[in-house]
Structures are given as structure tokens and as C-alpha cells.
Amino acid sequence: MRVLLTGGAGYIGSHVALVLLERGDDVIVVDDFSNSSPEGLRRVEKLTGGSIELVEADLADRAAAEAALADLDFEAVIHLAGLKAVGESVAQPSRYFRTNLNSTLNLLDIMRAKDVRKLVFSSSATVYGTPDADVDRLDESQPIGIGITNPYGRTKAFIEQIIADVQQAWPELEAVLLRYFNPVGAHPSGEIGEDPAGIPNNLMPFVAQVAVGRREKLSVFGDQYPTVDGTGVRDYIHVMDLAEGHVAALTHLSPGVEAYNLGSGEGHSVLEVVRAYEAASGREIPFEVVAPRAGDLAASVADPAKANADLDWRTTRTLGDACRDSWAWQTKNPNGFAPVG
Length: 341
Ligand code: NAD
Ligand code: WQD
Hints:
Blueprint: E1 2-6, H1 11-23, E2 26-31, H2 39-48, E3 52-56, H3 62-69, E4 76-79, H4 86-91, H5 93-114, E5 118-124, H6 151-169, E6 174-180, E7 182-184, H7 203-211, E8 218-221, E9 233-234, E10 236-238, H8 239-250, E11 256-262, E12 268-269, H9 270-281, E13 287-290, E14 299-300, H10 305-310, H11 319-332
Parallel strand pairs: 1-2, 1-4, 2-3, 4-5, 5-6, 6-11, 7-10, 8-13, 9-14
Antiparallel strand pairs: 9-12
Helix pairs in contact: 1-2, 1-8, 3-5, 5-6, 7-9, 7-11, 9-11
The structure holds nicotinamide-adenine-dinucleotide (NAD) and UDP-4-deoxy-4-formamido-beta-L-arabinopyranose.
């Protein structure tokens, strides 16, 4: 298949590109490099022996998006492009809505004009907002959009609705909404991985930087939640399992819109992540418990049964595997993709 990856130069997109190339698909990436560099994709080419067609464009800019995609030939789109920093979205809501919504609207119009009917969208477990306290594992029948605590999360819920409305008007559209839980880890080669700019917002990249000595200690956001040890519980999914979920979704598309949770179905606390990373790295991770972070949930764990059944997909890698692979990436690339020196 010829697949267009929007945002394909980023953390998740580069791993999806790798899995597609290994399967023998043709990969085209469109990215504006606002949160990535072409280096990750160069490494993907080296790892796979494949080649990626790379187009630089801001998809939120209508004219630029049309110009970039006009002459390209592709049968399916995996739409990962977008801004994703929760805290930044609170400070810059218009930028988040403009970028994430306009990119998607432009893309959908271009797909329709070209009669490209296959779409896989990067959604997020954040669309479930603040679920009822008695819900242990979230399945796709849970309501979405209620109690979302930040503009980033609302962009995802709005885009899910936009795709559903466009499909009503264009019944041939075959769309899947993938609700990722917490993507972590890296390709086992340690050649590609997550390269956050500045201070990492997310737990595992922060822990990785503490382990490697770039930061002094981890701040644990709260230890009084009603969880196994009082710290927040999440469903951490290895990025290679997540990438394989995209391929599974691509091969199971049919007219309509379906949402799938991509998660392991298992929760781990912050302290469990710390211990797993200590075991994988052989380093001590100093930490200090601080106040809870605004908007955080006590727990968020997927029920992945629908994806297991319909997409014939399940996670095969453990939290320990993710820590090992994150550590390989971190030690081989202590400055991420930036040149050393
Ligand atoms: P990322 O920032 O590494 O990748 C996103 C890519 O999109 C980057 O390469 C960036 O340069 C590009 N991009 C941003 N705005 C663009 C624009 N206007 N035009 C073209 N390219 C643009 O993030 P990621 O972690 O790989 O996330 C990929 C997708 O998955 C995002 O949509 C994100 O919201 C979603 N998601 C991520 C997580 C997570 O924890 N990483 C969880 C749930 C959902
Ligand atoms: C995990 C746990 C924190 C950092 C976010 C977005 C979500 C999705 C994934 C895109 C929580 C705790 C964290 C730290 C800590 N992204 N923590 N100290 O908040 O579950 O999800 O990323 O769609 O939308 O909200 O992930 O990695 O930030 O936090 O104690 O320095 O680690 O409180 O319990 P989160 P996270």
C-alpha cells in the first residue's frame, strides 16, 4: 500500500513508518518539523533499508497543504500531525485548536477531492475525560468529551466528531479512531525514540533523563490517589505495539467510523514505573513526592478487547521491555536527535 503519514517524523510516526517499511509498504511523510527533525526518518531508512518520500508542509495552512499533496499518489492516510503538549494547550488554546482542527479539516477535504478513502486517526484516551469513579477499565462505549480538562484533549474529541460528521456526508470514507493510552519506549535498536524539546512533560522521558543524569530527581505528582500505592496509575503501551496497531487498523478498514482503544489493559503506578526503570537501567532514580498535577486522573486503563477482537491485535511487550528500550535510546542518544557537541 502507498501510505501517507502526516506528522510521520515525530515520535510515534517514525515507529509507524518503520513498521510499514518492514511490511513492504511505500511511505510518504508530510511534516512541518515543528516538533521533530528529519533525522529520525533517516535512521528509519537505515534500519529498514527502505526509502521514505518526505514533504515539508504545514497542514494547517490550506494553500500549503493543497500544494504539498496535489501531486502525491496515496491510498491511505495515517493522520498523526498535531500539537500534543497538554500544559501548552492551556496557555495557547487558539493555536492548539487552529493547528489540530484546521490540519484535519484540510486533510479531509483533500482526501475527498482525491477520492482517498482510508483514514487512521491518532486520537487519545484523553477523550474519555473524567470517567465515573467506578469504571476500572475504559471501553469504547464510555461517553467521550465529558470532563476533559484541557484544550489539547478537546481538540481530539472535536476531531473525532468532525470525522464522524464528514463520514455521514461521504459514506465511502473508511475511518478508524485510535485512542492511544500512554505510549512509551522506543525501537529496540535504540536508534529512534522520543525526543522531547525542553523539560519533558511525560513520565517516562523525565525518568529517562534522571537515570542518565541530565536531571536531578523526579517529582512524583501526588501519592494520595485511591490506587495500589497512592500514585497515579496509567496503561503504558510500548510504542512498537502501538505502531503495529496502526498497521492492524489499516488492514481492517471498512466504510464507516470505528474507535479502538490501543492499550495493554494493565495499569502501572508511577512508583512501579520508577522501579521498572531502575531495574532496566541499573541506575537509581531519586524522586520526591509533590502536589498532584492539575487535571490528572487517579487512574486510566484501557479495555482493549475490541481492538483485540476486531483488529486481531494485542500488545506483546511489557513495561520492562519499554524501559529497556527507552534506556537504550537514552544512552545512545543523550541529546536526542541533536548532534553531539
Ligand atoms: P510528535 O510531536 O512527536 O509528532 C507529531 C508530529 O506532527 C511532529 O513531527 C510535528 O512536527 C508534526 N506536526 C505538528 N503540527 C503540524 C502541522 N501543522 N503540519 C504538519 N506537521 C505537523 O508527537 P507524537 O507523540 O508522535 O504524537 C503523534 C500523534 O499522536 C499526535 O496527534 C498526538 O496528539 C497523538 N497522541 C500522542 C500521545 C503521546 O503520549 N505521545 C498520546 C495520545 C495521542
Ligand atoms: C503519567 C503519570 C502523572 C510526570 C498525557 C496526556 C495524554 C496523552 C499522554 C496525548 C501521571 C505522573 C508525570 C512527572 C509524575 N497524550 N507524573 N511526574 O498525564 O497520563 O497523559 O500523555 O494524547 O493526553 O494527558 O501522562 O506521562 O504525563 O503522566 O508523577 O514528572 O505520571 O501524574 O500519573 P498522562 P504523563
